[in-house]
## 1
Amino acid sequence: MTETPAHTALWPAPHASGAVTATVHVPGSKSVTNRALVLAALAAEPGWLRRPLRSRDTLLMAGALRAMGVGIEEGVGPDGSGEAWRVIPSGLQGPATVDVGNAGTVMRFLPPVAALADGPIRFDGDPRSYERPLTGVIDALRVLGARIDDSTHGSPGALPLTVHGGGALEGGRVEIDASSSSQFVSALLLSGPRFNQGVEVRHVGGPLPSMPHIRMTVDMLRAIGAQVDTPESGGEPNVWRVTPGALLGRDLTVEPDLSNAQPFLAAALVTGGTVTIPDWPAHTTQPGDALRGIFTEMGGSCELTEQGLVFTGSGSVHGIDVDLSEVGELTPGIAAVAALADSPSTLRGVAHLRLHETDRLAALTKEINELGGDVTETADGLHIRPRRLHGGIFHTYDDHRMATAGAIIGLAVEGVEIENVATTAKTLPDFPDLWTGMLGN
Ligand SMILES: O=C(O)C1=C[C@@H](OP(=O)(O)O)[C@@H](O)[C@H](O)C1
Ligand SMILES: C=C(OP(=O)(O)O)C(=O)O
């Protein structure tokens, strides 16, 4: 959050007149789709990606890979079912321009890919992308042998910049401070199998956020044939090693985005209703799976059935004291529910959210308080003391999760208007329709 944005279109957030009962099919995971695209692009043979998420962040990723020469074609999948992308790797080529938008996955995962390309790859994006941390990836790539020009505008190690790909990268050992974003580690590991010496990434610095996302990177690398040593597999703490080697062409079906399931589960919790999310995976590295525990502690109950995850609210919503460092992207939705609870909440471990799509701690504090709430920022999170809220404009600061947080509050508070609900297109373009569909409108 930098300043109060001008009002763009206002969307009257629907108010729930009673308990919500619905089944909501949530589109595919952003984090899985964008990792799968990168890995398939680096593979030695074509692969399939079924039920990919089609949203701003994933279309930017696909567009960037296409610009570097990768084939990404529309298809129906090898068994004839479902929409799919066929990814056909090729020699990565510059010159090319990559628009990262405000996608952390694109701005962090692609510079290492660009270092493998032959020719210059220029990176640019939304103004906010210039402010988001990137230097950990850029400094590491230089140590690993890449030539990068970040001198044209802005600050060193920040966008916009040009990676002068040399067709190969030496790789080897590197130390980084990834306390501002786990995506620095994921970025180096994802391309690591293609570096001449592979890569050894050692995190030095404060606590590393979003560990499930690093596990997702490791699991997906292993599934496509890479050898990865991790702290969990008997290695040193904070050290990951990827052995050089060819990646296989695979057929992967993308799981629903469990973080984007959050507002719908919250709807059941806040209204005392029941929401079913089909295809909820029994085992997953997605951080959104933690919602089963968190929203249960806040007053709901859930069951994993053949129909999917069935989540039921009890009619009461309780506050929570929780460390969200592993699952930071869930913070806006949890804060929204906490603002409607019957007791105070403390959300901890998420200082790095100040450098997400917007400063999420400042934005949540300001917007909930402008509806009559009582939220204060702490060094690493939020204190939320529920108060009776009233209607008003909920600004979103180009942050998809601010928009969905405002919609949750709107279910319980009449007269909430979301400014720029279209920003949900970053990861969930269907949000307004899914939301009104859930409410039976
Ligand atoms: O690797 C990923 O797919 C992500 C990692 C996390 O980033 P940070 O570690 O920067 O919070 C998360 O917040 C983001 O939404 C997606
Ligand atoms: C932090 C997020 O996104 P990004 O991938 O841009 O970091 C998010 O989706 O909550």
Note: The CA atoms of residues 246 and 296 lie 43 Å apart.
## 2
Amino acid sequence: MAEKPPTACTPQTALPIIDLTPFLPISTSLYSTPQAHLVAKLTTAAALNCACRDVGFFYLTGHGIPEEQRRTVLKEARNWFINASKEEKEAIKRWDIGKGPGGAGDGARGYQRVGENVTGGLKDWHEAIDHYRPVPPTDPPYAPIHGPNPWPSLQTHPTFKPTFESYTESCLSLGHALLRALSLALHPSPPKEDLFIEFLHNPFWVMRIIGYPPLSSSPEREGVSCGEHTDYGCITLLLADNTRGALQVRDKNGGWINADPLEGAYVVNIGDMLERWTNGLWESTRHRVVHGSGNYRVSVPFFFEPDWVARIKPLECCLAQTGGVPKYDEVMYGEHLLSMVLGNFMTVPPHTPPHTPLPAIEPPRVGGEKKAPALSAEAGGVSIIIR
Ligand SMILES: O=C(O)CCC(=O)C(=O)O
Ligand SMILES: [Fe+2]
């Protein structure tokens, strides 16, 4: 007789480790009976529920993405950041809306130089290429995040684009599997893996390819590499090199937990959309990057999001567990993203030194509570992104 999956959470001091194997397509061959498979899934789901409820961050093993592919992604990213010339970087730069050559520019896709991103009012000490799911140029709901992503030159970096395109496919498969597991975590009895399926016909995604010079190379020799924020979507699959002591996660007491890399694992966190779906049962956890050591750090967070047009509101099963009163108004994911990304414009002098505090921003109201905003504005050549 198969063992029963655990139901209670034990207190966590570090990030929990979750094995997703039972949710991978190959998993059916691993278990002797459907009942044994279901118990394995429920065990993973129960651990996920604890991780999302207590920490909002976890290590994910058994994710099915080959180590070789993950290593190649980081190698390509590092190679480009270190070896691409200033001109090559500027050739794929992010343009403010309509300000690129021939009126191009969506305010979002492309390369941002060190200090161009600002989080929580402070400039971030990193450079990055931001990619979004390519969408047709004439598809109205996506405006202005239209168009293709800009890629490094095929002449100088021929393997960059295919590497990231195939990695995107892998992350999308993993995202779907993880969302089935999260569904079961919320609805184990009777077991339900399809709570999110109606929101994931064509999931939107964002991928940031980030290079972090050491903070000691910044003018102030201190500050922050990526300011404190929550992620605004569904789940984030973080692939990072083996630098320790950089990514820090807020714990429930307001302290910081180091989310150091774990060999072969993803660091995963839940975003604001899952907080809304769960009516706050799971909170998207604040985190930041403070890269104090002397190396050049590389990370590639992949943000797996709902469909652009998905309408997000607390799920019935989560309302039932949280007193029955919705704490969040319904939002369309794409509108929410755009309001965060483009709805706030701030005036920033063009030569503001890194880590200069910017004017305070009134955070949007979320279920009557103030919640840190995720927004982007361009002014004076500075992009402001507050996740
Ligand atoms: O680089 C990292 O470790 C995390 C970056 C991050 O939190 C983000 O881009 O949202
Ligand atoms: Fe983040």
Note: The chain has seven helices and 20 strands.
## 3
Amino acid sequence: MESAKEAFAECEVGVTGEAVAVPKQESHRVSHVRPVQPRPSIRSRRIEEDPCVKVQGLSRSFGNGCAYCLDPRAVLERNRCPRCGTVHAVRDVGFELYSGEIVGIVGESGSGKSTLMQCLYFDQTASSGSIFVKPYDGGHRNILELSSQEKRRIRNTVFGMVYQNPYLGLRMDYSSLSNIAEQMIASGDRSVFHMRSRGEELLGQVNIPTVRATDPPRTFSGGMQQRVQIAKALSNNPPVLLLDEVTTGLDLSVQANVLDLILQIRRDFNVSMLVVSHDLGVIRMLADRTFVMLDGRVIEEGLTDQILEDPQHAYTQQLVYSLL
Ligand SMILES: Nc1ncnc2c1ncn2[C@@H]1O[C@H](COP(=O)(O)OP(=O)(O)OP(=O)(O)O)[C@@H](O)[C@H]1O
């Protein structure tokens, strides 16, 4: 079967990124800004294929906004309105995620990566925008406008979420098997036998020894907790995995194990993944395409190799050179 990278090799239609003016007081962060050149996208090769997830004009603010900052032309200092103090954590973000593809979202702390992910998983309520999800209803309806019952169903059947902080994704005092069973019950499974066998199978796949299956995650190392989260997220066979800084805080060898596991999951299950990280090294290992976020906006996007080899935006250049 053709790999995602091969599929991307014959691209021709471009998506234009836009250089973002940098406020004077932040000029130390960026040496110069040159216009971001149009980049190839995967569209030409996949023109016939509908995206698995399509996000359009997604925004999330903390605060009510004012006439000044709600004007799309407003120049904000970072992501905060200087007049009313509203934080525009995610601003007008759009992207498409295709079946079996891994898309990386990279950016410094506070750039809006987690907020974006949490809007997709309904942990947070988006202020505006649309999200279409093909595996749910063919991608016909904006899922942000659905009832809370339907949102819950999407959360339980379409998305699997792995949080940066395992305490958000796991019940630390329940056994690992119970954590997985909880997710399976939420997606409609009622067979204790099936939940047990599936749980043991998944824990085996993420290298948790069978003898630890009934132990609570609070007795596990950080890397093991992340692997239980991944097993739980996979338990209802979601077509889309959301991975938020899954390797942050892990030592390098454990980090490498988790990254290998993610690549293996993609190979074995053809799951689409959205991978958030502030670490371009992680993105380099995992992502076919990458979006770079700064102050709530996507400032550059492209195939990961292109972003790494020919970064256009000064902020991306800084990020890439810091890897050298
Ligand atoms: N509940 C909140 N109230 C006000 N501002 C918030 C809230 N949650 C997040 N923010 C702000 O939104 C912006 C984006 O935060 P977010 O956590 O999405 O960034 P991030 O890129 O994921 O950072 P990190 O890598 O540190 O997790 C930040 O400026 C943050 O201070």
Note: The two ends are 33 Å apart (CA to CA).
## 4
Amino acid sequence: MGENKQIEQKRVDEVREQIAGEISKLEQETSKRKDEVVHIRKYFWDEVKINTDTFDDYLETILGLRQEAQALAVSQSSHRQASKRLATLKRMERSPYFGRIDLREEGADRTEQIYIGIAALMDESGEDFLVYDWRAPVSSVYYDYQPGAVSYETPGGTVNGVLEKKMQFLIEGGHLQSLFDTSLTIGDEILQQVLGKGSNKQMQSIVATIQQEQNEVIRHERSRLLVVHGAAGSGKTSAALQRIAYLLYRNRHQLNADQIILFSPNTMFNRYVANVLPELGEETMQQVTFQAYLNRRLGQSFDLEEPYDQLEYLLTAARTSDYAARVAAIEYKASIPFFDAVNAYRQSLEHTGMVFSDLLFRGNVLISRHELDERFYGTDVSLGFHNRLEKLLEWLIKEVKQRIKAEYTQPWVEEEMQLLSEEKYRKAHRYLAKKRGFKRADTADYEMEDDALARLLVHQKVKPLLKEIRAYSFIHINAIYKQLFQGEEQLKRWTNKPLPSNWEAICAATVAMIDSDRLAYEDATPYLYLQELIQGFQVNRAIKQIVVDEAQDYSPFQFEFLKQLFPATKMTVLGDFNQAIFSHAQETSDFHSLTSLYGPDKTKLIPITRSYRSTKPIIELTRRLVPNGDQIIPFERDGAIPTLTRVKTKRERHTQMAAQINRLKERGFSSIAVICQSAAESRNAHEALSEQLELKLIATSSTEYEQGTVVIPSYLAKGMEFDAVILYDTAVYQDESVRRLFYTACTRAMHELHLFSLGDDSRFLQRAIRDGVLIITKP
Ligand SMILES: Nc1ncnc2c1ncn2[C@@H]1O[C@H](COP(=O)(O)OP(=O)(O)OP(=O)(O)O)[C@@H](O)[C@H]1O
């Protein structure tokens, strides 16, 4: 062992001793806290005296309850904090830190050695840091600079200095495996080592090897909207998760994990990234998919189309005129001109166009939609749309209560009274007695009058109706939405922008879908938006940060929607237009249009161009698949050159493919994906390959992130990565509309990529073939 290594190992040992001491103290404390919590839970009801005889007794009981509940909350929170710290320390015991910088600050008389790890650690005196948290202001020097002049920002201002030395450590199980003085070595050995490893079951934190451009993403705080546009494998998801950990640390007194939402592409992806924050000692944020939100809001009213079903249709349906209309509809309904049209339409509803539903009671019209219409449009426009609706609602409730009185003497009431069960009768009796002021012990003295019982029965029946009225069920949103689709002349009242040429066909298809209680994915957001504009937005002010990953798959319309839904939030948006798989984004190549969301002053765009996931030979191929691929810079990691196998029959393909998979397995690759274009192709591939080897099929409904050998549709593989990727058939990627899907599929490979073509090669491979970055094999 070199002298340096010995010295550093000694320090590692000393720091570990300090960690062990803190662990043992904390273990005692957590067990004490746990006992406290258990005790409070167990004896909760013994500690409070329940007495509700007089008002004072009642008040005292409430106060007692509240005190106990508070004590429980405090103990639970301390226990949670202590457990979290304990878990972090246990991780640090295995690997206390990963970096060191020797920094001489301007004006200081000595150079300080600063060690950086996943969390801070003080020495015994509590005065000096043995380890700095990677998110501390000074730690940014480690990520941003090579030795030389440096500066970093602190809450108190900019600090300048000289970085004299920078070291990286790889410590495992308390042993210093390797150390690198980055001023002496070229390249990034540790990053090489990390990236060279086989893929783990789940995404890992990248804290030890964050790159400068990623660090900017992680630490940027000023803007309301941060937009990160980065190549496939450039670490956008990783940086986003590190950023969440950073924001939680920086704002630890104002922000907690519940106030952050990560919008992810699917549930399987949620599982894939679930470990990163806990690994860093932070609680994990809320994770949702946009679809889950739509389902929650609209799922009861409609059979809602899933985004992947929309895609599957686009990939597999015959190219008819219906198909062209659908593609045009998807693009238009995602656009800002349509968003503006919906807003203008809603404005116009102030004067005309609202559609109401008849209010029925026991199948009969109690208040007709014409009455509602007259009433609404009879109120003064200057009151404002929502006030007028509010007034209508108040009138309605009053009117229903009034009109319902006519029911008291109807024969159905008499009939129901006769048929009332014993128990229901007793309940009604008890209720009315109480209402008449009878004490509990004296209720038997109350003689129930028939007409009181009749009123009670009618009121019980009308209750659900009143509840529905309060939820605005009398507004016929379906009909109002459909009015947008009554032909070109109609829509032109609300927009002066060009409409798709097949607008009439789009109108017919949209109305037909809604009439059969189905809602296409492209209609879901506009429909919900219109509903919110009419009924009042159900906003969420509690959320302070939202992070949208794979943002190229969200329409401008959806972003406007998110902005209104979360009025108090800052937004981080990460994506790559080369991977835009939904057809509304086919024409777009960057996020500049998002600048209008909050305005240029509140928006920051950060591009990341370096790609880390794949070996250099793989990136040399994938960057030749997209028009602007020359801007993608590969990280220098060597590996096998991708192959292209041309086969003549399906049988030949499956035999060759199975042999390739077996070879990869023998070489120790544990995650291998056969990527197909669609779910339909995946099912066929799975069936054929299963005859030769064991492999799993991943479908849209899958929630687990599977290890091993899998067959997966291209659009589901996005965001994920595999040791080796086998592309099932390049021949199906000919149309420009699937170029990005092809790129997405190929960029999932970390170490090896093998392509197969049955018949023609994909035309997008021409350049790669010409440039010789592919080995072509013919069986
Ligand atoms: N600084 C880094 N240190 C170590 N590993 C890194 C770093 N940056 C990225 N990686 C690794 O590169 C791979 C790709 O990262 P990630 O999935 O975050 O990229 P992405 O930009 O979201 O990719 P895509 O858009 O293709 O889904 C991951 O395995 C990640 O761990």
Note: The mean pLDDT is 89.
